[in-house]
């Protein structure tokens, strides 16, 4: 049974404990309180301001599990805090391994301070959970996919459009690296079931994947250069730095370009263009 008052008090306390800087928002000159406003949490959670306000005022419908997961992400809750949120709403606690949609709170705090940098949080199955605006401009919106297509590994081997941002001469190496990382993930007992499901599906649909999986490649662990083809600004050479959260099997990926290079200038241009198309008059 839902405990509306305690639920409202809990999310209000978490909202008031967050600052605009914690979530990458400007403070603004007229802000009187240090915490976030209700409408700001609503935006961060992808729900309407009216809906969120009703929850804090003990009203409205019982939030669904999907809404609660979104609120947990918007409020940057830890896994323990997320579990408490679900209990207050009358739901069973989600399985921590089976549910991969909750972003680690620490990674979210780091991501919030990287809004002018292409960065994103991904799972070991290649699912992109959240991206900075510049990551969307560079790589496209990778959070919009559903089902098996949530995994970039799956899309790489089944959808030719996924390879359009990678030069053709790099496809073979990229395929080997992707499979190698999946091989590494399969060694983790907690991930064996979802990895096995992904492998079975890809082995049926992609001969290339099946051939590579049989070889069991092991990925290199150093940070190598990756060339990305952008439809408006052309080829961009970036280096990926990765911050891992082993408890939730997630990683924060940060893409940078060497200062003084054309690629660095192109990233700066993308930060201005965003997701707009560049048109020539």
UniProtKB/TrEMBL annotation:
Record Pfam families: HTH_31 (PF13560), MLTR_LBD (PF17765)
Gene Ontology terms for molecular function: DNA binding
Domain of life: Bacteria
InterPro entries: Cro/C1-type_HTH, Lambda_DNA-bd_dom_sf, MLTR_LBD
Residue ranges of domain HTH cro/C1-type in the record: 35-82
PROSITE patterns: HTH_CROC1
Protein name: Transcriptional regulator
Organism field: Actinomadura craniellae
Organism phylogeny: Bacteria, Bacillati, Actinomycetota, Actinomycetes, Streptosporangiales
């Amino acid at each position: 049974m839902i405990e509306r008052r305690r639920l409202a008090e809990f999310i209000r306390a978490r909202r008031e404990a967050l600052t605009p800087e914690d979530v990458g928002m400007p403070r603004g000159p007229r802000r009187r309180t240090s915490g976030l406003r209700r409408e700001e949490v609503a935006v961060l959670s992808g729900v309407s301001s009216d809906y969120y306000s009703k929850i804090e005022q003990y009203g409205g419908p019982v939030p669904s599990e999907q809404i609660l997961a979104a609120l947990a992400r918007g409020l940057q809750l830890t896994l323990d805090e997320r579990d408490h949120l679900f209990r207050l709403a009358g739901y069973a606690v989600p399985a921590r391994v089976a549910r991969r949609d909750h972003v680690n709170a620490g990674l979210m705090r780091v991501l919030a301070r990287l809004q002018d940098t292409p960065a994103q949080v991904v799972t070991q199955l290649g699912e992109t959970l959240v991206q900075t605006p510049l990551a969307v401009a560079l790589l496209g919106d990778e959070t919009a996919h559903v089902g098996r297509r949530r995994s970039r590994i799956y899309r790489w081997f089944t959808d030719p459009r996924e390879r359009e941002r990678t030069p053709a001469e790099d496809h073979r190496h990229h395929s080997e690296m992707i499979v190698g990382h999946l091989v590494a993930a399969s060694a983790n007992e907690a991930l064996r079931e979802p990895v096995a499901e992904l492998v079975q599906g890809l082995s049926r649909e992609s001969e290339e994947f099946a051939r590579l999986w049989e070889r069991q490649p092991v990925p290199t662990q150093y940070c190598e250069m990756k060339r990305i083809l952008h439809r408006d600004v052309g080829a961009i050479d970036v280096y990926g730095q990765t911050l891992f959260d082993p408890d939730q099997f997630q990683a924060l990926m940060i893409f940078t370009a060497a200062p003084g290079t054309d690629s660095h200038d192109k990233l700066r241009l993308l930060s201005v263009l965003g997701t707009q198309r560049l048109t020539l008059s």
